[in-house]
Amino acid sequence: MNRNLIIALSTVSSALILSYTYLNRYRFTTPSTIEVKGLGTTNFESDYIVWEGTYKTQDFNLQTAYSKLSGDKKVVEEFLKNQNVPDEQVVFGAISTDVEYKNIYNDEGNIIDRKFMGYVLEQSITIESYEVDHIEKVSRSITEVLNKGVAFYSSNPRYYYSGLSNLKLDLIANATKDAKTRAEIIASEAGAEIGDLKEAEMGVLQITGQNSNEAYRWGGTFNTSSRLKTASITMDLTYEIVN
What is the predicted pLDDT for the residue at 113? Predict the structure, then answer.
């Protein structure tokens, strides 16, 4: 027989033997597994609201500016009292003081001097409450304060949920159940069954506004601008496959 042909046949035979040995070793010593992803999701409504705002005043005299700010605070306090907002839900922040200047330019556009424009005093206010409907209404009525000459700047309310811990547990349970169901269906269609759970990995909690187009983030999303929210979480499960 041709010597080169003998060498070629020997090489092919060796390769087949090695391949067969490898496949059998993998088949019998490493159980087949299936990896599936399950999703748990639910809609819920926030039960806690945080509303913040600031008011400020300006004057060339520091004492006069402080006196004006004190008057503005009384207007805000009276407004909140008339709106039946409990004192324990209201926190006034410390007064901040700043000095404002106006730059003076020459004909070439270079700054040549600064003109003193007065002291700017500002104070923040924060309201936290479980009375979401009530505080929402109060935030929309702040024009009453503006009409009395107070330079009040209102932020949009932020919304939270006090039962988030229990909600997360329910999501994990639902996502796990969903993943197991998917694994069972896939295995059944392939003529097999799932065996022991080999590995489980939980995804991050994602909270978005209901019916919004907010994108999920790698580190999780936590929407505070929407009162109505959607929470979701994923579970990655790996099951052993039993033939």
Answer: 87
CA proximity to 72, closest of 185, 191, 153:
153
Residue in this structure with the two tokens 């896939």, named with its chain if needed = 186
Which residues make Cβ contacts (< 8 Å) with residue 182, sequence separation at least 6? 36, 37, 38
Token pair in block for residue 242:
């039993």
Secondary structure E strands in the chain: 33-45, 48-59, 90-92, 96-105, 111-129, 152-154, 158-160, 193-202, 206-209, 221-222, 228-242
Choose among 154, 211, 203, 158: nearest CA to 176: 203
Q: Is-contact 135 127, C-beta < 8 A?
A: yes
Give the burial string for 105-128 (b: 16+ CB within 10 Å, else e): eeeeeeeeeeeeebbbbbbbbebb
Segment 68-126, tens digit of pLDDT: 999 999 999 999 999 999 999 999 999 999 999 999 998 888 888 899 999 999 999 99
Distance CA 52, CA 14 (A): 77
Residue 237 contacts residue 38 (beta carbons within 8 Å): yes
Instruction: Indicate the average pLDDT of the chain.
Output: 87
